[in-house]
Design brief:
The protein is an alpha/beta fold. A 7-stranded parallel sheet has the order 3-2-1-4-5-6-15, sandwiched between helices. The relative contact order is 0.15. It starts with a strand and ends with a strand. The mean pLDDT is about 95. Helix content is about 40%, strand content about 25%. The chain is built from 15 helices and 16 strands. It binds NADP nicotinamide-adenine-dinucleotide phosphate. NADP nicotinamide-adenine-dinucleotide phosphate (NAP) binds next to α1, β2 and α8.
């Protein structure tokens, strides 16, 4: 009998990791190992999954910032998924996973330091025949796939813009303190970069308004650089303008709390964990209670003028984070091996990926036409 894939999920009981675990547990060829610093929480989810999992689910208490603890946790792994707020340690985690003979994937922020640390592992990964897949999830993770899919629907694609909006009931969810710190990191690392007529430009005022439909309506969104967007002109050479844009949290958070957090971080950078907790507290006070997430691509090709709109949505933003990770993992496990360093958006085959999102409960709508 062939041994199952042993998939280690760091943050396996977190908001993203627990949903990935629930979706992967039922696969007959997968054994899960749930990792986090709270063994009791890992054990509780492992026990809950025991009824549906094809193989016993293991629980490991480990702080993956420590190399020795990583070595123990990754022993025997064939894939390590970092669904943990460990962006600063992504390079070290991937290196330990490669040393254990495993592929790796992360759902962390798309930040230059992480991407450089992972890119440095490319020769080692290729020599070992292993994949390092980064920027997994919803955003990052899906916008680049939507543009690649649009390019197959509209040959000669010249313009592609993807907007994202979500609403989380912050009061209903529990977050690791490390995740709260990462929320404010996101504010400091945000780069408003878009490609405009063939030139990369950085302007926070290059906003776009998207009509996201029923749940979210019309929202003005600001540009936010993701690696998968920077990669697109090489993959779709006809593209002249492309960007990813994100909607805000509402006026109190966008115009008062976020600027205050940025000032606090500038004056007292060592207080990042406290600023993170304050930001999460503010989100719990001043954001609406609704729960939904949506991405919308609006793309066009020249003469004759044609356009495509793709909308991807789910009532649970964390399901819309976990489902793309699972769809990508399935292509990694079931498809031909392609060693190297990839973003999720460049690794997956777009049509198959979108079909799988749909079969896992994501609403995917595609409309192709000759006018806006
Ligand atoms: N790409 C996307 O669309 C997307 C969407 C949402 C979130 N994310 C990213 O995904 C990551 C997880 O976010 P989340 O919202 O799911 O966070 P979360 O619910 O707070 O879960 C984070 C998990 O990581 C674990 N963890 C943190 N530090 C650890 C360490 N040093 N060693 C072992 N485990 C550790 C936490 O457990 P303990 O604290 O108990 O150790 C917890 O289980 C973050 O980087 C976030 O930015 C990406």
């Amino acid at each position: 009998m062939v041994a199952p894939h042993r998939i280690v999920i760091i943050g396996g009981y977190g908001n993203t990791g627990s949903r990935v675990a629930r979706l992967l547990a039922a696969r007959a060829d997968v054994q899960l190992v749930l990792v986090g610093r709270h063994l009791d929480r890992a054990r509780a989810l492992a026990a809950e999954l025991a009824g549906t999992a094809a193989h016993p689910v293991l629980a490991v208490g480990a702080d993956v910032r420590d190399e020795g603890q990583r070595r123990t946790a990754f022993d025997g792994a064939t894939l390590v998924i970092a669904a943990s707020s460990t962006t600063d340690h992504a390079g070290a985690i991937a290196r330990s996973a490669l040393a254990a003979g495993a592929d790796t994937m992360d759902t962390n922020l798309s930040v230059p330091a992480k991407l450089a640390a992972l890119q440095a592992l490319a020769p080692e990964g290729e020599r070992a025949g292993r994949c390092v897949i980064t920027d997994g999830g919803f955003h990052p993770g899906v916008p680049g796939v939507l543009v690649r899919h649009a390019a197959t629907l509209l040959p000669g694609l010249t313009d592609a813009h993807v907007g994202g909006a979500f609403s989380i009931d912050w009061r209903a969810l529990r977050f690791s303190d490390a995740t709260a710190s990462e929320f404010v990191d996101e504010l400091t690392t945000m780069d408003p970069e878009t490609l405009v007529d063939g030139d990369w430009q950085h302007s926070i005022s290059a906003t776009r308004t998207f009509d996201f439909g029923d749940a979210a309506g019309n929202r003005r969104c600001v540009p936010w650089a993701l690696q998968e967007i920077r990669d697109l002109p090489a993959l779709v050479p006809t593209l002249r303008s492309v960007g990813f844009y994100i909607a805000g949290f509402g006026p109190v958070i966008d115009y008062l709390v976020m600027p205050a957090c940025l000032v606090a971080l500038r004056i007292l950078p060592s207080q990042r964990p406290r600023v993170g907790k304050a930001f999460l507290w503010a989100l719990r006070q001043w954001t609406p209670r609704g729960s939904w997430a949506v991405l919308q691509l609006e793309a066009a090709a020249g003469t004759p003028y044609r356009q495509v709109v793709i909308r991807v949505s789910h009532p649970d933003p964390y399901a819309l984070t976990a489902i793309p990770v699972v769809a990508c993992v399935e292509q990694l496990l079931d498809g031909p091996r392609r060693p190297g360093v990839w973003t999720q958006a460049s690794f997956v085959e777009p049509a198959l990926f979108l079909r799988r999102l749909e079969s896992l409960g994501v609403d995917v709508r595609v409309s192709v036409g000759t006018a806006w």
